[in-house]
Design goal:
Residues 90-379 form the Dehydrogenase E1 component domain. Keywords: Oxidoreductase, Pyruvate, Thiamine pyrophosphate, Transit peptide. The chain is an alpha/beta fold. The protein folds into three domains: 11-50, no CATH class; 56-385, 3-Layer(aba) Sandwich (Rossmann fold); 394-425 and 506-560, no CATH class. 39% of the residues lie in helices and 11% in strands. The chain is built from 18 helices and 13 strands. It has helices at residues 11-16, 24-35, 37-51, 81-106, 121-128, 144-149, 154-162, 193-207, 225-236, 256-259, 282-299, 326-335, 338-348, 354-376, 435-458, 488-493, 521-527, 549-554; strands at 55-59, 64-67, 76-80, 136-138, 213-218, 241-247, 250-251, 254-255, 274-278, 302-307, 410-415, 538-543, 558-559. It has a six-stranded mixed β-sheet with strand order 2-9-10-6-5-4, sandwiched between helices. A three-stranded antiparallel β-sheet has the order 11-12-13, with helices on one face. A two-stranded antiparallel sheet has the order 1-3. The protein is globular. The N and C termini lie far apart (113 Å).
């Protein structure tokens, strides 16, 4: 007897019960059950429960082209239900984010530049799906998707686009300057991020952290000379770097064949292996990225060309219709759209139903709308914050315990053994420093020597001959102190060295120095007979604001 209760019978069991003895009435009842909507829904739920935890295998076709590679990524890829729903959700979120951003820009709520990622979602989602915690990313100005996928919340990203203080860059970065952990942001200068990415890869190699740097740039930047310089350095030092050219077929308003003599961007590395990837198939991107990460860890750099398409113009100021037709864009939407194609694959592999995917679409639309509404209510950046966080302090390490960012113009002459320090000048702008101080000291000495010579000539006062060592010439103001307290004037002046055989006079006041004499005080103290040998040991501390390490080292602390 065939059981007709749909809740207890399965389709194979019903069909196995059909024999040549089955009556026509029973067959009609069986067909009626199969046609009922409730029966189809039950089968769908039953099938879903049986396949939710299983992996499906899919063969990729016409998705890879290799250059200077012995083997390429595997064509047979496995996809679980969890991964499928995760990647689909992220692509829908990125698409919805860009739709909201376009609406806000048209409403003049987003100002400045705004470059949208519509149509290229599979590239960012596929690559980040297999990245590890140690891997890093740096990209150009079309960076909204990368920013979100690297950890910035949808709310913080929208707030940054709106220029409010709750944005991920406190409302001052805008569309092109957002950052996160292991994400070195969007960069506004075309192609400038590529050498920086090579430097990040060098840091991975230096720290030996097993990380790989993914460097993204567009086909419009592929002709930049600095990119080829980065190629050379990465290959020379065998850096773990993946150069990713997101070829969306147009550099601003110029089609690639009109700007590039060679449009096979994955071959541009010459001595670096390359791989062409269908960038509109998220599974192909994921497989190629996993292959590239494994390759870069042991073999050095590799170039990936992600062949994709952007639906919008270069930026919001570009309608995107002056250099291509609307039919071209519509044809890509119908045949190569990354979200639509992946949606069909997921349903065909029975990893999810149409109803589930539709529910994901509705939930994403609702959540992004709530985040956008919340961001619109936030306060804009205050005026006093406009200049904050512009310059970073203490970027360079300390040199001899001193940071170049904390240096001040200051001159100090310290006499050891408890001698008083000179009073610093009130206005340090008038104090010569560095080479200027040396020149000033020399000029002052020459001037004083010249004045003495003139005075001697006017009074016909000549110095004694070399043989006359017993008595100074008449008029010589220098006196040899013989008793305590005598010769204080000459000792305080300390401009002329004492004659040989003279002894130190007690009670002589300490020498004081005017500003700018730090470089000449050594000779002055040496000539002062009131100081002992130990007291003549001096230390000079001259601190300058430096612009380079070499300048600072030349003017560093000296011990004489």
């Amino acid at each position: 007897m065939i059981m007709l209760k749909q809740g207890r019978a399965t389709l194979p069991k019903l069909l196995s019960g059909v024999t040549h003895q089955t009556s026509a009435l029973q067959l009609r009842r069986l067909l009626a059950i199969c046609k009922r909507a409730t029966w189809r829904e039950w089968l769908n739920r039953r099938h879903k429960s049986e396949t939710s935890n299983s992996n499906s295998t899919l063969t990729l076709e016409n998705t890879f082209k290799c250059y200077d590679l012995e083997t390429g990524p595997p064509l047979d890829v496995e996809l679980s239900r969890e991964d499928a729903l995760s990647m689909y959700t992220k692509m829908v979120e990125v698409r919805r984010l860009e739709i909201i951003a376009a609406e806000f820009y048209k409403q003049k709520k987003i100002r400045g530049f705004c470059h949208l990622y519509n149509g290229q979602e599979a590239v960012a989602v596929g690559m980040t799906s297999v990245m590890r915690k140690t891997d890093t990313v740096i990209t150009a100005y079309r960076c909204h998707a990368w920013t979100y996928l690297m950890g910035v919340s949808m709310y913080a990203l929208l707030a940054e686009l709106l220029g409010v203080r709750t944005g991920c860059s406190r409302g001052k970065g805008g569309s092109m300057h957002m950052y996160a952990d292991n994400y070195y942001g969007g960069n506004g200068i075309v192609g400038a991020q590529v050498p920086m990415g090579a430097g990040i890869a060098l840091a991975h190699r230096y720290k030996d952290d097993d990380g790989v740097c993914i460097v993204c740039y567009g086909d419009g930047a592929a002709n930049q000379g600095q990119i080829f310089e980065a190629y050379n350095m990465a290959k020379l030092w065998c850096l773990p770097c993946i150069f990713v050219c997101e070829n969306n077929e147009y550099g601003m308003g110029t089609e690639t064949s009109r700007a590039s003599a060679n449009t096979d961007f994955y071959m541009r590395g010459q001595y670096i292996p390359g791989l062409w990837v269908d960038g509109n198939q998220v599974l192909a991107v994921r497989s190629a990225t996993q292959f590239a990460i494994d390759f870069a860890q042991s073999n050095g750099p590799i170039v990936l060309e992600m062949f994709t398409y952007r639906y919008m113009g270069h930026s919001m100021s570009d309608p995107g219709t002056s250099y291509r037709t609307r039919d071209e864009v519509q044809n890509v939407r119908e045949t190569r759209d990354p979200i639509t194609n992946f949606r069909n694959q997921v349903v065909r592999l029975c990893l999810a139903s149409e109803e589930e995917l539709k529910q994901i679409d509705d939930n994403v639309k609702k959540q992004v709308g709530l985040d956008a509404k919340k961001a619109l209510q936030d306060r804009e950046v205050d005026e006093h914050e406009l200049t904050a966080d512009v310059y970073a302090k203490n970027v360079e390490p300390k040199i001899r315990g001193v940071s170049g960012y904390n240096l001040e113009h200051r001159q100090v002459t310290e006499v050891c053994l408890g001698k008083p320090k000179p009073t610093p000048a009130k206005d340090m702008k008038d104090v010569p420093v560095g080479d200027a101080a040396l020149l000033a000291a020399q000029a002052g000495k020459m001037k004083k020597d010249g004045k003495k010579t003139d005075e001697a000539a006017d009074g016909d006062k000549t110095k004694p001959s070399d043989g006359d060592k017993t008595k100074p010439a008449d008029g010589d103001k220098t006196k040899t102190p013989t008793k305590k307290g005598e010769g204080e004037e000459s000792q305080s002046n300390a401009k002329v060295p004492p004659a040989k055989g003279e002894t130190k006079a007690a009670g002589t006041p300490p020498v004081t120095w005017s500003p700018g004499q730090s470089y000449s005080c050594s000779s002055a103290i040496r000539k002062n007979s009131s100081l002992t040998t130990a007291e003549k040991s001096t230390r000079y501390i001259t601190v300058f604001t430096t612009q380079s390490r070499a300048t600072w080292l030349r003017r560093r602390t000296k011990v004489t």
